[in-house]
Amino acid sequence: MRQTLEQVFGYRQFRPGQEVAISAILAGRSAAAIFPTGSGKSLCYQLPALLLPHLTLVVSPLLALIQDQLSFLQRHGIAAASIDSAQSRDEVTDVMNRARSGALKILMISVERLKNERFRHFIAHVPISLLVIDEAHCISEWGHNFRPDYLKLPDYQREFNIPPALLLTATATPHVIEDMQRKFAIAPDDVVTTGFYRPNLTLTVEPTLGREKRRRLVQWLGERAGQPSIVYVTQQKTAEFVAEHLAESGIPAQAYHAGLPHDQREGIQRQFMEGRLNCIVATIAFGMGIDKSDIRNVVHFDLPKSVENYSQEIGRAGRDGAVSECLVLANRDSLNVLENFVYGDTPEREGILQVLEDLQSARREGQWEFLLLHLSDMSNIRQLPLKTLLVQLELRGIIAPRYSYFAEYRFRYLIEPQVLVQQFEGERQQFVQALVATSRRARTWATVDFDALHQQYRAERGRVVTALDFFQEKGWIALETRQMTDVYSLLVTDFDAQALSEELHAYFVHHEANEVARIHGMLDLFASERCLSHRLAQYFGDEQAPERCGHCSVCAGRVAVLPEAPALAPLDQQDLSDMCSEFVSTHRQKVGHEPSVECLTRFLCGISVPVFTRLKARGIPGFGMLENYPYAKVRSWIRGQLQ
User: Fold this and answer.
1) Is residue 363 included in any domain, yes or no?
2) Using alpha carbons only, how large is the chain's radius of gyration in Å?
3) Per residue in 221-231, pLDDT tens?
4) Model confidence over 449-505: pLDDT tens digits?
5) What is the rounded distance in angstroms from the CA atom of residue 146 to the CA atom of residue 610?
6) DSSP state for residue 279 in the 8-state scheme
7) Would you place residue 288 in the very low, low, confident or very high pLDDT band (cuts 50, 70, 90)?
8) Which end of the chain is more exposed for a tag (fewer CB within 10 A), N or C?
9) 173 and 205 both lie in a single domain
10) What is the mean pLDDT of residues 19-43?
């Protein structure tokens, strides 16, 4: 273990906690490593991966995180690869072949990849020594960015017979740690926590009026010219606006957010990593997922979404241990925008009812099949809360996931069909002949007809998929898959849909209140009269941090009193029909009925939901006109106007 540490990674000794976590994994036990950002969590799987006999499978929520870790592994000569949506079919096939042959030590994927029929079929036949779950706090509903698909990871671990799991995170409260430990049966001694206090980070909260923020940002960064810096903002348009303003003020900067083309984002990140660009303005919603050790400054131009987000984002500074500065330009201006993001994820009760009725309508088939995008459009529920709804139905014992499959497989011949058939003999040749004969061929592409194949040849779907993959590996066909379909078993269908929709809606409203409280908890932290470093560590259950760090704004005698947001014109002075008449008319015409109070509130607050895409609502006058107002107040005002 120590020999590998020095020879491969070039380190003489382990950092705190690493050896304990690695020893547990090498002894065949599951473990959790809860270390602050930049404290070497990744080594806890990278080193064991080299010493374990089979593949290490790493599940991560962010493509940017995967790419960054791959670069590190490849620089150290470690055979690692990823499978992701940005790759071509040929690239995916190449990675699968390397994993099958044992040439790969580490394979990195997103959690959603485990629902993919082809991938599940492939991974079931590859021996795996270790399952690694990065950003493992996502598994807990009490975590700050809960990912419903993460809840299925304990089942995947059993299904693919992977005995040990390693859970990694930098931001887990005691409640979340307990949840992670229980779900993966981790012994208390194998939960390794090293504390959250970072002595090299100077935390500053500076009360700043909204109109003063740009001037102050230019001044502050100007005093630190040439130092690698990240400026965090809430919205994509702010990222563009702030980056442009910095550039005009003599500080070269680029915006970095999910709305940019993939290649452009990659290029900007590469420039930043290589030191050719020293300032990036990034949306907190997207995050950077980078591992650059010498970031000297992290500025929150807008408020972060929660204490956990704040901790994660400042954690990108000073990973090399050198002193780094973290500044929050704090006021309450963007508070309503932050809260409105939360309200947008709460489904309407009518939408939940539609999902339940769709489920009940499948009772005769004994299973429920759907395309997530279609179900999202039909119910007007965003995809992430819809996934949460499905998980809640699982937890209540109403449905159980069976598998996901692509509704459509189509292929293009790269050799003549008869030449393909002649590659085989006997029964296999008959099977391939049946596959060719039943596939509906258009000018270029042939679509596989699974039903016809089953009726004529009794061919099971799994065998057909395996054959198609084999044909592609051999270069005989080009293969495409489309329309991911989820299949669930129906365990209970005689429930009262009205009552259950009310119960589930209440669950989402409760979750909404918790998220809003989380935002206010962050404001309380920033306005604290006690040491910021100590308060932050305490939030994550770390009682070892010093009571006074001596290097935060509170310890320097500057307790932040956050300025109030500018006064908004009273809602009573607004004219609802004036702002919404075109939207109401479009909704009536294309959806067939009047928009609900919730729908009108979302329109005026600029919160996107699936129906708005269909209606092209962003282009309708009035969209987002009240985005700076509190959502609950806008909703209450609309109710009053419509009575």
Assistant:
1) no
2) 27
3) 999 989 999 99
4) 998 998 888 888 888 988 998 898 889 999 888 888 888 999 999 999 999 999 999
5) 21
6) E
7) low
8) C
9) no
10) 92
Can you give the pLDDT at residue 591?
92
CA-closest candidate to residue 68, choices 312, 310, 288, 315: 288
Ramachandran region, residue 435 (left: φ > 0; alpha: ψ -120 to 50; beta: rest):
alpha
Locus of tokens 């390397």: 98
| pLDDT per position as a tens digit, 97-112 | 999 999 999 999 988 8
* Burial class of residue 275 (count of CB atoms within 10 Å of its CB; 0-12, 13-18, 19+): exposed
Please compute the mean of the pLDDT values over residues 384-394 and round it to a whole number.
90
Task: Looking at the structure, tell me whether residues 219 and 303 fall in a common domain.
Answer: yes
pLDDT at 88 (0 to 100): 77
- Count of Cβ atoms closer than 10 Å to residue 415 Cβ: 14
Residue 285's pLDDT is: 53
Instruction: Classify each residue of 356-392 as buried b or exposed e, where b means 16 or more C-beta atoms within 10 Å of its C-beta.
Output: beebeebeeeeebebebeebbebbbbbeebbbbbbbb
Whether residue 464 contacts residue 401, with contact meaning beta carbons closer than 8 Å, is answered with: no
Q: Decide: 338 and 303 in contact? Cβ < 8 Å.
A: yes
Going 282 to 287 to 290 to 291, the CA torsion angle's sign is positive
Say whether 325 sits in a helix, a strand or coil.
strand
Residue positions counted in the chain: 643
Residues 44 and 186 in one domain: yes
Average pLDDT over residues 61-85: 83
The HSE-up count of residue 500 (CA atoms within 13 Å, CB side) is 21
CA-CA-CA-CA torsion for 281, 287, 288, 291, nearest 10 degrees? 130
226, two tokens: 């040439």
pLDDT given for residue 36 in this prediction: 81
> Degrees (nearest 5) of the Cα angle 182, 187, 188?
95
d(CA 80, CA 629): 48
Is the same domain home to 315 and 428?
Answer: no
CATH at 534: 3.40.50.300
- Statement: residue 600 has pLDDT above 80: yes
Written as one string, the DSSP assignment of 567-582 is PPPPGGGS-HHHHHHH
197 dihedral zone (left: phi>0; alpha: psi -120 to 50; beta): beta
pLDDT of residue 339: 87
Q: Is residue 416 part of a domain?
A: yes
Q: Which domain holds residue 121?
A: 2-193
**Enclosing H/E stretch for 392:** helix 383-395
pLDDT digits (tens, 9 = 90+) for 304-316: 988 988 998 998 8
Say whether both 175 and 236 belong to one domain.
no
The answer on 254 and 148 residing in a single domain is no
The tens digit of pLDDT for each residue in 523-546 reads 999 999 999 999 999 998 888 899
- In this structure, how many other beta carbons lie within 10 angstroms of the beta carbon of residue 449? 17
Same-domain pairing of 147 and 227: no
Residues 588, 625 within the same domain: yes
Q: What average pLDDT is seen over the chain?
A: 90
The angle that helices 307-314 and 532-539 make with each other, rounded to 10 degrees, is 110
Enumerate long-range contacts of 238-245, CB under 8 Å, 24 or more apart: 238/283, 238/301, 238/302, 239/281, 239/282, 239/283, 242/214, 242/217, 242/281, 242/301, 243/281, 245/214, 245/218
DSSP assigned state of 196? S
Residue with tokens 């075109």: 582
- Tell me the whole-structure pTM to 2 decimals: 0.77
What's the total number of domains in the chain? 4
Domain boundary among 139, 166, 193: 193
> Residue 397 falls within a domain, yes or no?
no
